């Protein structure tokens, strides 16, 4: 394994480990558990899960992998606070979208070359990227891995 | 900037960004705020802060940077639950230790070479590292950056 491969595989493992933890927590929760608030008056588990799916869905175009699939989640899980929008989506559909989205991301991460990883993401212009070359695909993935962990810390507070 | 440098600087930036967020949140809190629980019956902010200092202090030997300095924090912030051990350490002392610990880590991260980053950390044997070469210094730092984010998510729930 080259040094480049080692750096990349280590970084991707950080993403994958956090996804696996979130899968255990959310996909392993019952419908009743998903309706529980992480603390009195705070977000429900189902909101955090839908929020992560919507954010990861947006990573597909951001990383140049493909178009979004679940923009219908944005109103309830990204733009609005929990309970601000009626949500009819159920547990099984969220589980399927969670698996499909992270599966598509992982498939791309496993084939990205070092040049792919250090190339700009699609939300930064060529000029801005020239000024700050750390605004690359890897920065997006590491930032989003930390974002998963941020909400895992909250989800861990929910009553068991 | 080489591809290796870009990968490494991007990963280190993930660490630094999360440390900066934690500094804003914890070092910017008043003594009264630090005593608040993140949610009823859950950890206080001061506990999360002391916990992160103790964990980061342990990174110094783990990454071969130097010896620990604050093992006296372990009983209250690492081994015991919040309030299980009387803590006499005050806000200013925690702020000084937080800055000193993360400063020592950042100084090392800024001089580590690609070979340093992909070398094993001190808690894995040479045999185990040969079997899994991703158990390197970079994995520790990315894992700990996600750990900071995990507790930031919790700290964000505390009453303002």
SSE map:
2 copies of one chain form a homodimer.
Chain A: H1 3-27, H2 31-34, H3 45-62, H4 74-79, H5 91-111, H6 114-117, H7 126-131, H8 137-155
Helix pairs in contact in A: 1-5, 1-8, 3-5, 3-8
Task: Give a written overview of the molecule.
2 copies of one chain form a homodimer. Chain A has helices at residues 3-27, 31-34, 45-62, 74-79, 91-111, 114-117, 126-131, 137-155. With 160 residues, the first copy, chain A, is mainly α. The first copy, chain A, has one domain (3-155): Up-down Bundle (Four Helix Bundle (Hemerythrin (Met), subunit A)). Chain A is globular and about 45 Å long. The mean pLDDT of chain A is 95.
- Provide the structure class of chain A: mainly alpha
Low-confidence stretches of chain A: none
- Tally of alpha and pi helices of chain A: 8
Average pLDDT metric of chain A: 95
Which pair of chains forms the biggest interface, and how many residues does each contribute? A-B, 40 and 40 residues
CATH topology heading of chain A:
Four Helix Bundle (Hemerythrin (Met), subunit A)
The CATH class assignment of chain A is Mainly Alpha
Beta-strand proportion of chain A:
under 5%
Structurally, the number of domains of chain A stands at 1
Outline of chain A, from the CA principal axes?
globular
Tell me about the biggest sheet of chain A? none
Q: What is the helix content of chain A?
A: 55-70%
Query: What is the CATH-assigned architecture of chain A?
Result: Up-down Bundle
Total beta strand runs of chain A: 0
Instruction: Write down the secondary-structure element order of chain A.
Output: HHHHHHHH
The CA-CA distance between the termini of chain A, in Å, is 42 Å
The CATH homologous superfamily of chain A is named dinb family like domain
| Oligomer state of the chains in this structure | homodimer
């Amino acid at each position: 394994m080259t040094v480049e491969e080692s750096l990349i595989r280590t970084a991707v493992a950080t993403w994958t480990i956090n996804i696996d933890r979130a899968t255990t927590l959310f996909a392993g929760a019952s419908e009743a558990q998903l309706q529980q608030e992480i603390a009195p008056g705070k977000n429900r588990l189902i909101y955090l899960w839908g929020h992560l799916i919507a954010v990861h869905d947006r990573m597909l175009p951001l990383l140049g992998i493909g178009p979004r699939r679940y923009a219908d989640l944005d109103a309830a899980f990204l733009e609005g606070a929990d309970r601000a929008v009626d949500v009819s989506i159920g547990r099984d559909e969220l589980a399927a979208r969670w698996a499909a989205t992270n599966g598509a991301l992982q498939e791309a991460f496993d084939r990205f070359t070092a040049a792919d990883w250090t190339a700009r993401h699609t939300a930064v212009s060529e000029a801005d990227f020239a000024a700050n070359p750390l605004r690359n695909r890897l920065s997006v993935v590491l930032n989003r891995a930390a974002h998963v962990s941020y909400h895992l810390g909250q989800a861990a507070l929910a009553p068991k």
